[in-house]
Amino acid sequence: MTHDKRPGTVVSVSRDDLHRFSKPAVGSIRLLAGIGVEGDSHAGVTVQHRYAKKRNPLAPNLCQVHFMAAELFDDLVPTGYTVTPGELGENVTTAGIGLMTLPLGTRLHLGAEAVVSITGMRSPCSLINGYQKGLMKQLITTDAVGTVHRRGGIMGVVVTGGVVNPGDGIRVELPAGEHVPLGVV
After folding, report:
1. Parallel, antiparallel, or unpaired for β 8-14 and 92-95?
2. Which residue intervals define the domain MOSC in the entry (predicted)?
């Protein structure tokens, strides 16, 4: 397997035991293999997102951990939006990694033990506009040739559990073989 040499850091970690839009930042989170973030409303073997659970409650949970790049928050400031870690519902806010460019199956090694396999991109939903009016247009854009660009973070499943703290390092392990771009999960 190929290893990416870009440095990465955990900026903040968040969880919420209720299905609310934002998740409060906490001192640490515990990732549970095959489950997700201990104590988080989206933890489980099967899908826990309310809209997806209504469609197919037995579907596998490909969205156990939500990652968002802190660099996005900086990019939003000139457009008039202020966002801080956890406010867009992510569990792990990162710095130093181009999350949206990672291929399917990338493994993120967080801190001393935890490993998460990336399953796809999060597609921001209209609830974002309820949080800050017009913000969704900043997170889903279309370029001049009609290509849609999503900036709502990425999702993954926990392969190896462990505690994750702000300040922990992140090591990127790229998958072997052809790199498949992330789709929406």
Report:
1. antiparallel
2. 23-173
Count of beta carbons in the 10 Å neighbourhood of residue 39: 13
From first to last of the 185 residues of the chain, give the pLDDT tens digit: 444 445 799 999 999 999 999 999 999 999 999 999 999 999 999 999 888 889 999 999 999 999 999 999 999 999 999 999 999 999 999 999 999 999 999 999 999 999 999 999 998 888 899 999 999 999 999 999 999 999 999 999 999 999 999 999 999 999 999 999 999 99
How far apart CA 136 and CA 131 sit, in angstroms, is 10
Own/partner contacts of 15-19, CB < 8 Å, gap of 24 or more, are: 15/39, 15/40, 15/91, 16/40, 16/41, 17/41, 19/50
**Interatomic CA distance for residues 56 and 174, integer angstroms:** 30
What are the structural domains, with CATH classification, of the chain? 2-174 (2.40.33.20)
Residues forming a β-bridge with 67 = 92, 154
Contact (Cβ atoms closer than 8 angstroms) between residue 30 and residue 110: no
